[in-house]
Structure formats: C-alpha cells, structure tokens
Amino acid sequence: VLVLLLLTSGRDPGIIPRNTRPPAPESLGANVEPGPGQTASLPRTKDVVVDGVTVKVKYCETCMLYRPPRSSHCSICNNCVERFDHHCRWLGQCIGLRNYRFFFMFVFSTTLLCLYGHAFCWVYIRRIMDSEKTSIWKAMTKTPASIALIVYSLLALWFVGGLSVLHLYLISVNQSTYEKFRYHFSRHTNPFNKGIVKNFAEVFCSSIPESKINFRAKVQKKSGMPP
Questions:
Q1: What is the Cα Rg of the chain in Å?
Q2: C-alpha 135: how far from its chain's center?
Q3: Which parts of the chain span the membrane according to its record (predicted)?
C-alpha cells in the first residue's frame, strides 16, 4: 500500500508542457467556436473527430495550447494534465494518464487492507471467547483496541470501498471522474469505450508513456527580471 501511495503521489500524472509559442491564427481550422471575450483569430474551442464522434477541445489561456482530448487544466496544480481524472487532495497530486493505474491499485489495496483488519479483529475476539469460555460482549471488553479498529475500518471502508466500486465502473466504460460528472457520455456516444476487456487492458496492461516534463532542465530567466 505504501509503495503504491508513493508511486501515485510522486509520479508525474501526465503534465502537458506549456507552449511558449501559441498557435498562429492561420493554422487553426474553420470549424471553430469563439468564446466570450476572445477574437475570431484565436477561438476558444475547435472540433476533432474521435472514432466517428465529434469532440470539442479547448484552448487553455494559461498553458497557451489546445488541450488534447480527455485533458483538462487543474486549477490547483495550475497545469494541463493528459487524461485528467481529478485532483486528489488527500495525496496532494493530480490523477491522470501516468498515475491513474497506481491510484486505483492504491485505493483497491487499501480497501482489501481494511477488510483484512476488520476480519482479523473478529477472529481475535472469537479466540478470546473460545479460550475463556465467555460471551462475545465480555470478550469485546477485554480488547478495546479491536473494537476501535473495527469501527475505524468500517468508516474507512465506507469511503475507499465506495471509491473502488466507482472506479471499477469508470474503468469498465472507459471514463474518467471528470468526464463522468461533467460530460455524461452515454454508452453509445462515448468514443473512448472499447468494451470491458479492452478498457481494463488499456488501464492495466498498456505501457505508460514517458513524461513530457524535463525536471532536470534549468529554468530560463525571463528578460527584464533582476539577477
């Protein structure tokens, strides 16, 4: 569980590098829709076709690029992230293309750990009952730590168990949390749904793309800034 926690929180989620050279107006397609406060030379959205379904991609004014399909800008991290799922405040990290697999495995393994701890406490109480030939209530009073752990594991299961079930469903239909609660794709209009088997294979068996961010690169000093 701790290894998966580190892999999820410490890995680049799929940050898209900011574009220092915004797209020229003449390079934009004709099928575009200007947004409020923008000129026609730099439209807010444009249409791309994914598996026969038209999907709108938006221009990010912060990163100065048209976000690829399924990408979104995280207001907390202030970065565009590929296949953006959500920003996890518990981990302090975005969940996206490069760490979603580890995030799900972390949540699911935490669910199993809660189940194991819950069951182990009841087994321990049962052993006290058998060894001392006493009732379940008296056995429970002899191990208050087990009672506390039973209550704690039940509360934790309510959250991580529900989260595991939700993401099992999202993986089966190839949707992200962001898409589920924002776009509401149906089974027939979701261009990314390849079937349950292929959807699971895409998440767990596909190779993880290399990070597009060079974390060892030197930060370029902007002109006009003091040394």
A1: 24
A2: 46
A3: 102-125, 145-171
Question: And the tokens for 46?
Answer: 């444009």
Q: Count of CB atoms within 10 A of residue 179's CB?
A: 20
pLDDT in tens, 161-185: 999 999 999 999 999 999 888 876 6
Note the pLDDT tens digit of each residue in 136-163: 888 888 889 999 999 999 999 999 999 9
Q: What are phi and psi of 177, to 5 degrees?
A: -60, -40
Write the single-letter amino acid at 66: Y
pLDDT at 169: 95
Q: Answer yes or no: 60 catalytic.
A: no
Q: Return d(Cα 23, Cα 141) in angstroms, integer.
A: 70
Distance, first Cα to last Cα, the chain: 45
DSSP 166-197: HHHHHHHTT--HHHHHHT---TTT-TT---HH
Q: Write down the catalytic residue from 74, 80, 88, 121.
A: 88
